[in-house]
Structure formats: C-alpha cells, structure tokens
Amino acid sequence: VQLQASGGGLVQAGGSLRLSCAASGVTFSNYNMGWFRQAPGKEREFVSGINWDGETTDYADSVKGRFTISSNRNTVYLQMNSLKPEDTAVYYCASSRYGGTYFLSRRRFEFWGQGTLVTVSS
User: Fold this and answer.
1) For residues 40 and 29, what is the distance between their CA atoms, to the nearest angstrom?
2) How far is 38 from 23, CA to CA, in rounded Å?
3) What pLDDT band is residue 32 in, cutting at 50, 70 and 90?
4) 2-6 and 57-59 as β-strands: parallel, antiparallel, unpaired?
5) The pLDDT of residue 38
6) Residue 86 falls in which region: left (phi positive, over 0), alpha (psi -120 to 50) or beta
7) Contacts for 52-55 with beta carbons within 8 Å, 24 or more apart?
8) For the chain, what is the largest distance between any 2 Cα atoms, rounded to a whole number of angstroms?
9) Residue 85 in contact with residue 121, Cβ under 8 Å?
10) Residues with Cβ < 8 Å from 87, sequence gap 6 or more?
11) How far apart (Å, rounded) are the C-alpha atoms in residues 3 and 88?
C-alpha cells in the first residue's frame, strides 16, 4: 500500500489548510483511513479517522469542531480550519487493512504515508 499525502504548508493562526492522501496498491476492500500528527519533540498522536464507507468519523478532542475528515474512493481529506500554532506538526496519512467501526474506534492502522508539514504561525 502506498499513501501519498499533500497539502501541507505555512499558514497564519486562524487560517485553513486542506490535506489530501491518495491510496494506491490496495489489494483489500473496505478499509478505514485516518490522519496522525507528530510535533517536534512529541510522540505521534491520532488526529482523525473515517470508516471505509465514510459514514462514521472519529476525532481527537483537540481538533473537534475545527477539523473535518472526508473520503472519496481511495482518497482521504482533512479540512483544517481555525488553525492554531499548536497544530504545527508533520501530518501522516494512515490506512488500515480492515474496515468498520470496531477498528475505527480502536484507531488501528497498519500502513503509513510520508508526512506533510503543517506550520501555523502566531
């Protein structure tokens, strides 16, 4: 599985960015996708996930109400609004070989893309 993320960049606090991630080489169907991030000096943390059918989503408390995840076929998006300096991080796209709310609720993902850097200036 190859995951290609794009859309990162530099934005001022309060601004918006939209990340995209296209999955290729997938040999299984009905898989969940998600986003994680890693800030300098911190561990990678979950940001958001979406069920394979796009009907169920999950968000970290820190981004609820500001970020929106969506998907279309093999592409997952992360619309980030009202960005804060603490959102600065490398954002990673992830996919699971499994689908469904059970695996989504456990934030279980097995495949990772390269990161895209998001920098929010104050």
Assistant:
1) 34
2) 21
3) very high
4) unpaired
5) 98
6) alpha
7) 52/99, 52/100, 53/99
8) 43
9) yes
10) 37, 63, 80, 118, 120
11) 21
For residues 112 and 33, is the Cβ–Cβ distance under 8 A?
no
Rounded Cα–Cα distance for residues 60 and 24 (Å): 26
Strand 9-12, strand 116-121: pairing: parallel
In the prediction, which pLDDT does 37 show?
98
| Cα–Cα distance measured from residue 98 to residue 118, given in angstroms and rounded to the nearest whole number | 28
On average, the pLDDT of the chain sits at 94
Q: What angle do CA 27, 29, 34 make, to 5 degrees?
A: 100
DSSP 101: H
pLDDT in tens, 60-116: 999 999 999 999 988 999 999 999 999 999 999 999 998 888 889 899 999 999 999
